[in-house]
Structures are given as C-alpha cells and as structure tokens.
User: Fold this.
Amino acid sequence: MKKYLKCIAMMLGAMMLVSCGNAGKTYTAKDLAGEWNIVQVGGKPVKAEVEPFLGFQADDKQLYGNAGCNSLMGSFEVGAGQADALEFGALGSTKRMCADMEAEDAILQAMGQVKRFAFQADNRLVLKDAEGKELMVLEARK
Assistant:
C-alpha cells in the first residue's frame, strides 16, 4: 500500500511540475510574427502550384499569404480570453482559377475553423479548432 501511495504522490508531483511549466505563458501577436509554410492540412501533406504560406504582421495584426493559387489577406487576433486563442478576421483573396484548387479549398476551409494554436519544438506552428483538433501544420519559413 505504501508503494502505491508513493507512486501516486510521485505522479501528482510530476503533473504539477508539467502544468507549472506552462502556467502563465501568454502569447501575443509577436509570437506568431513572420512567415510560415503550410505543410499539412487535415493531416495530409499539401501539394499546390505555389507553395502556400501565411505571414503574420505583429504590429498591425495583419495576415497575408498564399493559399496555393491565390493571394490572401486579412487580420488576426491572439489570446482573446485564452492564452492559445487565435481568430482570423474577415479574409480576402484574389480570384484566379488554377488547374488544381483542391489544396486551396482545404486551406481556406481549415482557416475558417481555426480557434487555437500551439508551437512544437521543431519550429512548427499547429492551428487547431475549438476542441483542439489539428487543422493545419505550418513550418517557419527560412
């Protein structure tokens, strides 16, 4: 019984340390600043005519990029009520028709569902829906 209680105490201590490590981290627009290649949408690699990417301008919270065919622009907001919250404002885009619009359609649809984000250790940014489901994976542009 003592071993069992000791094991539980150790697990609780470890959980507290992990949660304390993330506690208090508040993200700002500056954390997203820069350009990010869109490498996955819906768990699938992205293949498009033009390399899709998103660019975040922290100072004026403006978004720009390319969805694989058309350029896009809009606004974004970080941390509205939750440390990992991300909302895109109204998005606009050019209206070119490309031979393959599949990637662009998937990217634009996913962007409409984005509510949260997370950073991964390998210079990746994961965009998620309200429930935390992964929608898109982005890599920092070099």
The longest strand covers residues 34-41.
